Amino acid sequence: MAKLDPSTYPLKTGKQIIFRNLAPEDAESFLQFRLQVPQDSTNTMQYVGMKFPTLEETAKRLETQLADRTTLNIGAFDSGKVVGYLNFRMPNPDHPWVQHLGQFGMMILKEYWGHGIGKRLLDLQELHAKSIGISRIEAMVRTKNDRGIKLYEHNGYKIEGTRRKAAKIDDDFCDEYFIAKILDDPKLSWKPPTLTTDRLILRPIELGDADSIFEYAKNPNVSKLTLWEPHSSTQDSLDYIKDYIFDYYSKGVPEPLGIALKNNPQKIIGTVGCFWTSKQAKAMELAYAVAENYWGQGLVAEASQAVMNYCFKEFALKRIQARCKVENEASARVMQKVGMIFEGTLKSAFFHRERFWDMHYYAKVSE
Fold it and tell me: How wide is the angle at C-alpha 60 spanned by C-alphas 133 and 90, nearest 5°?
């Protein structure tokens, strides 16, 4: 029985990539793929001049692995040609202490880097791992493999340690990171709830929202009076999601939710959320941003009110505060609309963009 249902993934170039189990009939294409990989990079264990199994041996090995319910060989195919590959296995499937543990290795032809194939392979691997009761997936990645490290970190893998001099390539010693992802960690699975208002859906941010966020976050007018800089690429937006938003989610903090119109819930037009300023004092801070096309429509106040209502109740808060640069009159009006009271101005509270900024502070306190 197949362990992976074939699926199609469209690249931005227009190509259609098919993901499915490698089968014996793929042996020739798979061998050609393995020959090409070391020509592209030294980031895998494949090397130029490496002796590979024969076509018959490769076909037999693929047949055996296909019959093993725990092992997974995913091929990414472009017009029948293998262009990407992930192998997942249990290192000691019969040992009672490590039956929760899986390991993997992944290779993609250089021509296909940066098109989302690696992420898709990792997603399919995770579905398979969960289906057979795996709760930890681990691998090794060279410390100089910046692209690979960023991909793994964006998909929830953590660096747990370093193997010094793990490989010697062209007389140069290379270190490797030991990376792992815990699949059943409740902190990794927490997401804030989806909230609705008259016009909006406020939902958890996903990695797939990077393009929508970049669309408005690249606009210097949006960030002109904020404490963050315009995003210069979609990668900046991905980093924001992974390093900032997902970090807060892992701590059980709703900072932020994505703002979307009810008639287009897939497209994020802004964000709104609250983060802790003092758990002991039961105090959080409200923060928000929205695309320029939606300014002046009351959407930020509508979204902020819903998030504040949720946080006051969910976290039994005493206080939610907000702040803005004195010049940011529009932001101040949002704070006033949601019932916050002006508490004062801190002079030269921030040094940002080569100057000092005065900050207005507002707050709402529960009865």
Answer: 20
E strands present in 143-216: 158-169, 172-182, 195-196, 200-204
The amino acid sitting at 49 is G
Q: Dihedral of CA 147/149/153/155: which sign?
A: positive
User: Residue 344: beta bridge partners?
Assistant: 361
In the chain the domains, ranked by start, together with CATH numbers, are 7-184 (3.40.630.30), 188-365 (3.40.630.30)
Tokens of 82: 């293998």
Q: Is the pTM of this model over 0.85?
A: no
255 — alpha (psi -120 to 50), left (phi > 0) or beta? beta
pLDDT tens for each residue of 121-130: 998 999 899 8
Burial of 292 (0-12, 13-18, 19+ CB in 10 A): exposed
State the pairing for strand pair 136-142/101-108. Answer: parallel
